[in-house]
Amino acid sequence: MTEPAGSFVAPPVERHIEVAPGVALHVEQRSGDRAAAPFVLVHGLASNVRLWDGVAEHLHALGHTVIAIDQRGHGRSDAPASGYDLDTAVADLLALIGALELERPVLAGQSWGGNVVLELAWRHPEAVRGIACVDGGVIELSQSYPSWEECLSKLTPPALDHLTLPELESRIRKGVPHFTDRAIAAYLHCFRTRADGTIEARLARSRHLSILRSLWEHRPTMRWATLKTPTLLLLADAGDQTRTAAKRRAEAAALAAGGKLRSIWFSPGHHDLHLEFPGRVGELLAGAVSEGFFA
């Protein structure tokens, strides 16, 4: 496949698009060739649009229109009091596609975002030409945590609001020492600094837990048999044998359903594959379009 040419990267156009009465999502739009398949990039839980920057630039350099978004309550999108569930995330994304008049885009979602794009494609196959789930879509938390109470106990995010931004940055760098400065900056964008110098998550904890509950309730295994949309799974093997085994079981169930599905493993690979390997992820997405997989 042709590599992006040149070193200049044009900045995206930033917009706020209303998706529900009084609720607008922050969108970064890179306009490309009208004949090329458009992409919509959807981040994961408690994440933000910045983690998709490298992939967005790669796809745009290959001629695609690329829309990267902050989901409700995340990044620089509006944060209303309600609507932190899978149904609303799907409705927000569908409304965004309509408002931007996108012609059957490819949706790429990471982690929880993968489950969001899977659910949208299952409910509204006419709206999209394909989906890509980046270490997501196969997330079925109830299989690991049979009760919501157990899930809540294990996956409630740690309190970080006693830290300053430099202290948080130091922690992140220790966790992913091979990540670039740009990748670290993308993580830091999940937080803002308060007047006293400490940080707070852009996504409020109560809203984080509401989304987590809806993710725990989601059953992607009930979708594969009747899913009509071509689907690309990009899966990460981070070295945790238990988690990788669970993903392989989920992958096998999806493949056994007999739909148009392709899975690719990154081994080793971090959960945020789009941040760790933006060029490779971009190539796989664009390649699936050019060879007719997303048709």
Question: What keyword list fits this structure?
Answer:
single chain, 295 residues, alpha/beta, Rossmann fold, 38% helix, disordered N terminus
Walk me through the structure.
With 295 residues, the chain is α/β, with parallel strands linked by helices. It has one domain (13-155, 216-290): Alpha/Beta hydrolase fold, catalytic domain (Rossmann fold), CATH 3.40.50. The protein has helices spanning 53-61, 86-99, 112-123, 141-144, 148-155, 165-175, 181-188, 205-217, 241-256, 273-276, 278-290, and strands at residues 13-20, 23-30, 39-42, 66-69, 106-110, 130-134, 191-193, 199-201, 231-236, 261-266. A hairpin with a 5-residue loop joins strand 7 (191-193) and strand 8 (199-201). Helix 1 (53-61) crosses helix 11 and helix 2 packs across helix 3. The longest helix has 16 residues, at 241-256. It is globular.
Short description:
With 295 residues, this protein is α/β, with parallel strands linked by helices.
Strand order, largest beta sheet: 1-2-4-3-5-6-9-10
Number of domains: 1
Q: Count of DSSP helices?
A: 11
Structural class: alpha/beta
Main beta-sheet strand count, sense and barrel state = 8 strands, mixed
Can you give the helix content as a percent range?
25-40%
Topology, number of strands: 10
At CATH level 2, the architecture is: 3-Layer(aba) Sandwich
Uncertain spans, ≥5 residues at pLDDT below 50? 1-7
Radius of gyration: 18 Å
Give the overall shape. globular
Q: Give the CATH topology.
A: Rossmann fold
**CATH class value:** Alpha Beta
What is the CATH superfamily classification?
A: Alpha/Beta hydrolase fold, catalytic domain
Q: State the separation between the terminal residues, measured CA to CA.
A: 18 Å
- Return the average pLDDT rounded to an integer: 96
Strand content: 15-25%
Helix and strand succession? EEEHEHEHEHHHHEEHEHEHH
